Amino acid sequence: MRTCRTGCKKNPEKTVVAANDETVKIGFSMDTLKEERWLKDQALFKEAVEALGAEVEIVAANGDDALQITQAETLIQQGIDLLVIVPHNAEATAAIVHKAHSAGIKVIAYDRLIKNASIDLYVSFDNERVGELQAEAILELVPKGNYVYIGGATTDNNVHLIKKGVFNVLQPAIDQGDIKVVYDQWTEDWSPEKAFLNMTEALAANNNQIDAVIAANDATAGGVIQALAAQGLAGKIPVAGQDAELAAVQRIVGGTQTMTVYKPIQILTEQVASLAVRMAKGDTITTARAVNNGKVDVPSILLAPIPVTIDNLQDTVIKDGFHTQSDVYGQAAK
Ligand code: GAL
Questions:
Q1: Does ligand 1 have an atom closer than 6 angstroms to the CB of 190?
Q2: pTM score of the predicted model
Q3: Radius of gyration of the chain (CA)
Q4: What is the pLDDT of residues 223-273, one digit of tens each?
């Protein structure tokens, strides 16, 4: 019986063993803990794996591709039974998949697809739907006018899916001449500071004649709203985000952000933990859908994202305990 090396509180009643009769050990290689959501992914995934009686080793590479590869090599040498990866760079991470497979270890891509590698499973939220939900909410409020699109980091495959979703919805209005996308820029490393600079540039280039902004996540939306505030426009121009970060939900309550897209991380972590442990024990997973990653049709599970505005905050992020009433509305709301 393998002793618990990570100081994890394994579920004493329940220990799940791999084909080699040792406690199943899952490796979780994360890109970053920079955005608020990843801290939830880290904590909830650990909880979900340990609740199944397995062990988990979690590492984060702080957006550094070389470090992510080295960290994964270490996990493989430590004898993990299965590797779960949130890639920083969709292409560069393919090297890790080859190393894991050479060691007989299967790989699950978590939230973000790994390109051009024979990964075994991909589990995420429907990112194209995320973009559609953002654009539907904003187009309803601003059917005519000048739009700004602030995309995410191009190293992340999700940004292309989100943007495709946004333009699935906006294109008819663009073709009709009702709306004009006057500024469209990616944001390196999802940096709020870069989003602030891009939005400042967009305002200057258009004499502040902007009617709506769609930002790929709440971190970049925060940078956008700071730039709007600098021109006295915060709360006057609808802004969409993603991730239901606490600061974003507070901005929605305060009226400077219009909506965000909530992705119940609890569901994602529990699904991936259960699938990872089953695969580590040798189970074969079949899925209803597959996503082509440039090399193979990857068996995939895409979960449903949820649009959140001031109208359904209570019934979504607060009801689920994603954020507390007092965190969102302040102590007074207790
Ligand atoms: C995306 C993820 C988003 C967002 C972003 C920045 O891949 O789906 O939730 O937070 O990364 O880390």
A1: yes
A2: 0.94
A3: 21
A4: 999 999 999 999 999 999 999 999 999 999 999 999 999 999 999 999 999
Using CA positions, which residue lies closest to atom 1 of ligand 1? 158
CB of 220 sitting under 6 A from ligand 1 = no
Contact by Cβ (8 Å): 39, 86: no
Point out the residues of the chain with pLDDT beneath 50: 1-12, 334
The reply to whether ligand 1 has any atom less than 6 angstroms from the CB of 217 is yes
Q: Is the CB of 156 under 6 A from ligand 1?
A: yes
- What is the rounded end-to-end Cα distance, in angstroms, of the chain? 48
> Does the CB atom of residue 243 touch ligand 1 within 6 A?
yes
| Ligand 1 pocket member 88 (CB < 6 A) | no
**Is 316 in a helix, a strand, or coil?**
helix
Supply the pLDDT for residue 21.
Answer: 65
Ligand 1 pocket: which of 38, 62, 158 to mutate (most atoms within 8 A of CB): 158
**Lookup: tokens for 281:** 């024990």
Amino acid at 54: A
In 3D, which of 201, 210, 216 has the Cα closest to residue 156?
216
Which residues have a Cβ under 8 Å from the Cβ of 7 and sit 6 or more positions away? Answer: none
Of the candidates 67, 65, 47, the residue with the CA atom closest to the CA atom of residue 56: 47
- For residue 124, which atom of ligand 1 is closest to its CA? 8
Sign of the dihedral through C-alpha 199, 205, 207, 212:
negative
